[in-house]
Amino acid sequence: MLCLGVSGGLDKVHENSLELPNTFLHDGAAVLVRDGRVIAAVEEERLNRIKHSNKFPSSSIQYCLASAGIQLSDIDHIAFYATEAYCNVMLERLFLSQPNISIPVDAKLFLRNLLMREFGTEVDPSRVSFVSHHLAHAVSAFAMSGFEQSLILAVDGGGDFLSGLLALGSGTEITQLATFAEHNSLGLFYLETIRYLGYGLFDEYKVMGLAPYGDPAPYRGLFEQFYQLSANGEYRVYLDRIGPTLLRSIQVRRKGMPFTQQHRDVGASLQEALERIVFHILRHHREVTGMKRLCIAGGVAHNCTMNGKLLYSGLFEDIFVQPAAHDAGCALGAALMMSNDFGRPAPRERLQEVYWGPDLGSDLVVEQELNAWAGHLDVERSDDVAGRAADWMANGAVIGWVQGRSEFGPRALGNRSILADPRPVANKDRINAMVKKREGYRPFAPSVLEDDAREFF
Ligand SMILES: [Fe+2]
Question: Could you confirm whether 26 is annotated as catalytic?
Fold first, then answer.
């Protein structure tokens, strides 16, 4: 049983026929699952070089097929990461607002036409499904958690006219307990605030990184006007109050302007508000359901400060965060949902690794690639690559480290990573300036061998 999960946009790369904003249908990806196990997965941005690509993930699908040595016609089921009803409403809006383009107001037909155009294969309508966006997020976490039972929180900016859900996972079943309305979106709560700190969509993690440099106290009272916690783990957020209040109360930071302590403090208050709301929701459902474990997914679950606080709070005995918590992870969830529906559930094992992307290839392939850059690179062979790299780093070099298959999701986990010596404090600023061309405050993850962790932490 081969199931292909797909996320992303509806027009091809180098085309913008639908004039979709890049805020819509982002994080395109394809994930191929065989009998409940992932055999290939990649995000379109890694292949078309457009961050958070909102294009149809043609190259990702192509990669999945090639890595399994199959054709699109061999796939038993293809699942798209939103409901058919939601997709139809979106197509209807496009149809009405763009009279110059001819599109079917029928999501299934639209998707099949797109696959036909890209792969030259007629896909039977019975083999195409649309799944609930937030259930796909939920499944992407729970099915990989190894938990027999768990509370599941899917929380993001929005999708399917919702901004999240709470569910209970048990074995291969997921039961929905509550949904969060679009106007209560915690993703949008964060996004709406960071606009006044000179940031926009997909920059949320930068403000999470800025927050520890601030003090939440000065703006705590202000932020308390932006949300309300009520009984039964319910909450409201007032997105419309954020802009006018911040404009009146702070010296807003416009893109590129320097940061002040005020901006850091607002970042800290925002982070605190998010954590308070999420703790409020989870405390209630932890108590009512008695669940001792938690799975989290959805874009907001990339807030690792929040995740860390949840983990160390002791509210749950164990927490599993889907490493591809953003919408690319919905492609994974969608594929697993289909596989489950057709009697091939994911094995109940804890996820061990996410090296599901394109392989570096054989020594010969690497050599051919390097030869293509002859005259621009000095190439040296070494029998002790790790030792040589360690020497370089100890001498101040910053290293691009590449091995095996690429990671699925935004975290560089050792197969496509930038490495440097974590000991000199100056290295953080150096790498930020030199490689990433990013703000000096942005953090890096130190890593050490497990056996040596106590010596360093
Ligand atoms: Fe999402």
Answer: yes
